[in-house]
Amino acid sequence: MKMTWFENTALRVHIGGQILVIDADAAAEGVDRNELVSGADYVVSLAGKLPLADGRTWRPRSAQRLLDAGDTGRAADIWSLGAGALLIDADDDMPLLVLGGAVPALGRWVERAVVVLAGPDLAARAEGLVGEALPRLIGLAGNESEIDAALAIVRDKLDGTGLVALEPGLAVEV
Length: 174
Known about the structure:
The chain has helices spanning about 35, 65-70, 120-130, 145-155, and strands at about 1-5, 10-15, 20, 40-45, 75-80, 85-90, 95-100, 115-120, 135-140, 160-165, 170-174. By secondary structure, it is of the alpha/beta class. It has a six-stranded mixed sheet with strand order 5-6-7-8-9-10, with helices on one face. It has a five-stranded mixed sheet with strand order 4-3-2-1-11, with no helix packed on it. The radius of gyration is 15 Å and the shape is globular.
């Protein structure tokens, strides 16, 4: 999985052999939207209409049998976990949860997931996330002061969870 953050809640994600662009219209000024969505398999919005899943009971899908996979594999499953919460499940990758709003109720599956917190109030949402569950990796997408505040709150509560601060326009491979 490779993620590139373009400020606010705009992300370009390479996951499971597919390209997904989230909130392209929220990208920073100066980012060419046409270039951002170029070649994308999916262009979605955190506020868009997607199938709704319950974060407490959702489970990643089973791996596809090699005989059934063919050359292209399966399309990623994209779910909403509520306002500002987008969940992507793709073959051969960890689940990816992008949170632009409040942290929803989450099940044990999140322990194997990557969670990206983007948008305002990172510190409170990061504290809510680590109070709810400890994912494999947390990505913080915000300005330097918001990231510093979030780090100060969650630093001693991570218990093995990875933490990365996303930089605008810089790709992070997980």
